[in-house]
Specification:
The structure holds 2 protein chains of 2 kinds. Chain A is mainly β. Chain A is built from 8 helices and 27 strands. In chain A, the strands form 7 sheets. In chain A, strands 1, 2, 3, 4 and 27 form a 5-stranded mixed β-sheet that branches. Chain A has a 4-stranded antiparallel β-sheet with strand order 5-6-7-8, with no helix packed on it. In chain A, strands 9-10-11-12 form a 4-stranded antiparallel β-sheet, with no helix packed on it. By secondary structure, chain B is mainly α. In chain B, about 55% of the residues lie in helices and about 5% in strands. Chain B is built from 8 helices and 3 strands, in the order ββααβαααααα. In chain B, β1 and β2 form a beta hairpin. The N terminus of chain B is likely disordered. Classes of the chains: A mainly beta, B mainly alpha. Chain B: Keywords: Ubl conjugation pathway. Chain B: Pathway: Protein modification; protein ubiquitination.
């Protein structure tokens, strides 16, 4: 130990930290700084430049990749995202992405996207003419954005595509099918996966790019992002394959076969696991011993678990209360929340998805445990049928449940219920996993209907 | 050998890249995690600690910062804050970069924070051309590439929270 201290001049230090300790500045007058070689931002190592860039407010970031290749590279690196997160600079923003209505289709504007954000005071009124802000740009997606927990309404905006992107995917490709497509986020990009088309939406620039479609066309399938890749399963009669999408190479490949062919299922992910939840059985044959109803019931409340890294399936689980899964999502601390319907009431369950090796939450040994949670505050005697649909998004440790179809008010009125306490379409309910309580978020704006939802850290 | 170190009021000597020596009180040097670790690991018996990438001008600034913060560590935070902002005021960019490099190397977190933030504030709200000019960043995109990147950034996404 003392040996390391022998050097009178800390050669260990200069060796390890200074690649060129013999280098001397060719200057002879240390007190005349004007004569020294100037240190510029380009002399800073990557980690210091990242440190500086990560301090910038969001509004300054979108144009900075234009400065140079290096800046672009750094701003798009995972380290940048990590630093922003550590610095508390990232806001989990909930995006609602929606299809435009048929009048807009006539104007060659097939889709709308909405994004709901904090602090925005913009009006929600939109006109078709505002969609095309430039002649060669088409607002093919519309978004509303919102930051959960902030007392501001949703902010609406558009994702724009070049006309050639829009023309390559003419109106109709998502027609009637958009609500069956899935929306996911990787980093600051959103992926919209439709039956036969995939789009990448950039949340910094609002740009839309066309990407490769899935190998097998799917509807009402399960999809989730795990480790920077997208996994899809179900929703196809012809195959039980699980596909993986790599955004870096823009390519899909089959990675596994699902234990069950599901349709109308929900996907989510946490802890490296892709969860395929609920839905109906595809292709139940008349020759089966069990009644189709029994088989369907099992599908509706069951959950298949695919370990994306190990490329293997874990034992399937089922929601203890049975019923029919209507929505599900995962939250960061390692739980999967499932909303199930039992004809006239909803129940809300939590699945412990913390795996032994992830160290989160101190537990980990309780993987697989179900726990019934407080139900969302919907009027109890709501008849849940195909006219009502819910969407569930994990935002940090909160669960956001958005009613995307139907109107509880109408049902209440029909049933002689009280007005005013009901829940109309686009109601937003927020469950705080820490406090175990529900609260009401701002309703979705009128212009956004049948949206798909995703949380993006940006 | 221990000529620059006294028992009670210990001092050490730091040597800048351009050969200037600075006699520093130990409690001031302790603001630097790097120096602290060196002193903890009993490496403090060297007579001179060379800092070959930090020039005298920068080292003087760094030590000024350290002295203020060491002497005032138990006093009012407000006073230190105003010292910090005054400290960086009117400093040219070259000096700021040198300061960031030095603070990073010597592991002086507070100084790194304020200097990096000062640079970030300069970048803030400026178009990319202006950022290039201010910081002398060479545009290494080919015209085609730049057009493509620019194309992607044609519209600022208005939906941002």
């Amino acid at each position: 130990m003392s040996e390391s201290c022998n050097s009178r001049h800390f050669s260990w230090l200069t060796k390890s930290c200074f690649p060129n300790p013999q280098h001397h500045h060719p200057l002879h007058q240390p007190h005349l700084p004007l004569h020294r070689p100037t240190t510029t931002i380009s002399s800073l190592p990557d980690d210091l430049l990242l440190d500086i860039l990560s301090r910038l407010p969001h509004s300054s970031l979108p144009s900075l990749p234009l400065v140079s290749r290096r800046w672009s590279h750094l701003l798009h690196s995972p380290s940048f995202l990590l630093l922003r997160r550590l610095r508390g600079q990232l806001r989990r923003t909930l995006f609602a992405v929606a299809v435009t209505d048929s009048t807009l289709l006539h104007n060659n504007h097939p889709f709308l996207v909405y994004r709901h954000s904090t602090g925005a005071q913009d009006s929600f009124s939109e006109t078709a003419s505002s969609l095309a802000r430039e002649d060669d740009a088409v607002g093919i997606f519309r978004a509303a954005t919102h930051v959960i927990g902030q007392d501001s309404p949703w902010k609406t905006s558009h994702f724009l595509a070049d006309r050639d992107v829009a023309v390559a995917f003419p109106p109709g490709i998502f027609d009637g099918g958009f609500s069956h497509s899935r929306v996911l986020a990787i980093g600051r990009k959103i992926y919209v996966i439709g039956r036969t088309a995939t789009f990448e939406l950039h949340t910094w620039t609002g740009n839309v790019a066309a990407k490769s479609p899935m190998i097998f066309p799917r509807k009402k399938f399960a999809a989730a992002a795990v480790g920077g890749k997208i996994y899809v399963a179900g929703g196809a009669a012809r195959t039980s394959s699980v596909e993986e999408y790599d955004p870096d190479t823009d390519s899909w490949r089959v990675v596994s076969d699902a234990p069950r062919k599901r349709y109308g299922c929900v996907g989510t992910s946490v802890g490296g696991m892709f969860y395929v939840i609920g839905g109906l059985k595809i292709g139940a044959s008349a020759g089966e011993d069990f009644s189709r109803a029994a088989a369907s019931n099992y599908y509706a409340s069951s959950m298949d678990l695919y370990d994306a890294e190990a490329r293997g399936w874990l034992r399937s689980r089922a929601v203890p209360g049975g019923g029919c899964v209507v929505a599900a999502c995962a939250v960061e601390e390692g739980f999967v929340y499932v909303l199930t319907s039992h004809a006239v009431e909803l129940s809300f369950w939590r699945f412990d998805a913390r795996r032994k090796n992830n160290g989160g939450g101190g537990g980990g040994g309780a993987f697989g445990e179900w726990c019934r949670m407080k139900s969302p505050p919907l009027p109890v005697r709501v008849r849940l049928d195909s006219t009502m649909r819910f969407n569930c998004v994990g935002v940090g440790n909160k669960v956001v449940v958005i009613q995307v179809m139907g109107c509880v008010d109408d049902l209440l009125r029909r049933g002689g219920g009280r007005r005013g306490r009901g829940v109309k379409e686009a109601a937003v309910l927020v469950y705080d996993g820490g406090a175990g309580e529900w609260s009401r978020g701002p309703d979705l704006p009128e212009v956004i209907r049948r949206a798909a939802f995703v949380c993006v850290e940006c | 050998m221990a000529s620059s170190i006294e028992n009670n009021n210990e001092k050490l000597t730091l040597k800048s890249s351009d050969g200037e020596e600075f006699l520093v009180e130990k409690h001031v040097a302790l603001q630097s995690t790097l120096l602290q670790n060196m002193l903890d690991s009993d490496c403090s018996s060297a007579d001179v600690i060379p800092l070959p990438k930090i020039d005298a001008r920068t080292l003087a600034l760094v030590l000024g910062y350290c002295k203020k913060h060491a002497d005032a560590s138990s006093s009012k935070q407000g006073e230190l804050n105003s010292f910090d902002s005054e400290f960086l005021k009117d400093m040219d960019m070259g000096a700021l970069f040198n300061l960031v490099l030095a603070a990073n190397f010597m592991e002086i977190k507070g100084l790194l924070d304020i200097a990096a933030q000062k640079i970030a504030d300069t970048i803030k709200d400026k178009p990319h051309q202006e950022v290039r000019e201010i910081f002398h960043v060479e545009n290494d995109y080919t015209p085609e590439e730049e057009a493509a990147v620019r194309e992607e950034n044609r519209w600022a996404f208005e939906g941002f929270p």
